[in-house]
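Troubleshooting entry. Yesterday's outputs looked truncated, so today I'm pasting the complete records for two proteins to confirm everything comes through intact. If either block looks cut off, that's the bug. Protein one:
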Amino acid sequence: MNGKNEQVLQKMLSEIAIASSLMDGIDLDSFLADEMRKRAVCMTVINIGELVKNLDNDFRAKNAHVPWKAIAGFRDVAAHKYQTLRMEDVYATVSDDFPALKEMLEKIIT
């Protein structure tokens, strides 16, 4: 793996850690009621999706088990179609999908 791809993955892991800390101990109702938290978590989703777009195409193809396209697509919705973004989906993504994504990225790095 080249240094650029590894750097991008490390930054993605950092963003996942930030989102996880923002969501620590927060249930769905609390999340939905907290505008600043929603915006902060959405920014981490956007950052992660943007980082995916900086990975080499060959690298993404070699690691096709990671849903790169879905991650980038969710970023596009969060960034460009915010009015249709369901905060319940953001909550579920960070709560349910980020732990698995973290594990996949860590396996690639090691």
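Protein two, checking that the full record survives here as well:
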Amino acid sequence: MIHEVDEALRGLLGESGLEASGVETVFDAPTRDWAARRTAPTVCVFLYDIREDTTRRGSGAGEVYDADGFVVARRSPPRWFELTYLVTAWASRPQDEHRLLSKVLATLVSVDTLPERHLTGSLAELGLTVSLDAGGAGLDAPAASDVWSALGGELKASLGVRVRAPLAGVSRAAAPPVTEGLLVRSVHGEENEDPQPGRRLRYDGVSEPAPDEGFAGPRERRPAPARRRRGGRQP
């Protein structure tokens, strides 16, 4: 999921025209050594904090359908995580850095969610809203000064970006369909007596099967639920 959020951010920033103007978008840690090796204008999107949003943790399991509408697996609810990024601009002059950072800020604050067109993999499959908060107050994450201190670099202008994204739940294959009825056998009699042949029960409403078809009849097709529209309020 994390790499899918990275790619969505890259795609969103790419629409601002940065790449067309020769500005590279990277996800490296902006350490002192990294800054010394940088040779071109760069926007650095550094992920430095990952925390679960426990208020959105769900319970139960959802059904996964195949192309024919049959239940093939059951999946636990997604877990929501907050990914916090430190976004910085790097150029030869502070004025150029501020221009780049202003362009990034204008792009990120123009949306409240990562656009669907940029979602891939599990994020696209789940069809849930991935929220985006750029520069908002109350980011529950280490302060920027603490991050710079840990990186061993000098403090510079940066933008805090938080993304709330779902991590897909664990899928477990559904049990195969029943092909035979319940076998009932008498347990009365002498200890050494041969067991009596059992009687196999039939399910109500199931016609008599052919010898090689068992007692369950055809598997019932269950229609898949309607897909929730993107952008709606999630529990």
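Both blocks look complete. Sanity check on protein two: Residues 179-222 form one domain.
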